[in-house]
Amino acid sequence: MKRYVLLLLLTKDYKKMLLMKRTKKPFADLYNGVGGKIENGETVKDATIRECFEETGIKISSPKLLITCIYPESVNSEQEKEMSVLYDTVDEVEVSENEEGIYEWKDIDFAMDFNNKSIAGLSNIAQFTKEILDIENIKKFY
Fold first, then answer.
1. Which residues have C-beta within 8 Å of that of residue 100, sequence separation ≥ 6?
2. Beta strands, E only, 62-100
3. 20 to 30 Å CA-CA from 9: which of 2, 94, 110, 113?
4. CA 35 to CA 6: how far, in whole Å?
5. Are 14 and 100 in contact (CB under 8 A)?
6. What is the pLDDT of residues 3-54, one digit of tens each?
7. Band of residue 103 on the pLDDT scale cut at 50, 70, 90
8. Cα–Cα distance, 132 to 69 (Å, whole number)
9. Do the beta carbons of residue 19 and residue 104 sit within 8 Å?
């Protein structure tokens, strides 16, 4: 099974989210969170901390696990994939462009728009963002 982490990094006031406009496939030219593969022997938390620092230069220490999803075998892959989604809050800092993509602090409404075709995936970031705001008692959706 291939294992991945996806970090949704929000400002401490929960008004913005750091998203990366990817330069590589999959999801080239679409926005996504920070993340990548979990290395052998690495915990989900350790992989998230490492990926965040490698991609953005931002040091986090206590990301919170939101959900772990198992994606079944697909047409393009003979392996199941596991994706753990975590989140954390930080001060808004400038993040330099790198080989992964261009980083932008987007308004939270941008991330929560289920019809936003410029975000990778099937509206999962919108759903995850709403769940984070609900868990943190920022805004109730249920």
1. 20, 22, 23, 24, 55
2. 64-71, 81-90
3. 2
4. 4
5. no
6. 999 999 999 999 999 999 999 887 889 999 999 999 999 999 999 999 999 9
7. very high
8. 16
9. yes
Token pair recorded at residue 64: 């919170």
Residue 6 identity: L
Question: What is the per-residue pLDDT for 142?
Answer: 53
Residue 104's Cβ-count burial label (10 Å; 0-12, 13-18, 19+) is middle
- Report residue 111 as tokens: 């991330």
**pLDDT of 122:** 79
Name the band, by pLDDT with cuts 50, 70 and 90, for residue 74.
low
CA dist 14 and 95 (Å) reads 18
Cα(55)–Cα(30) distance, integer angstroms: 16
Nearest to 58 by CA among 96, 23, 86, 32: 96
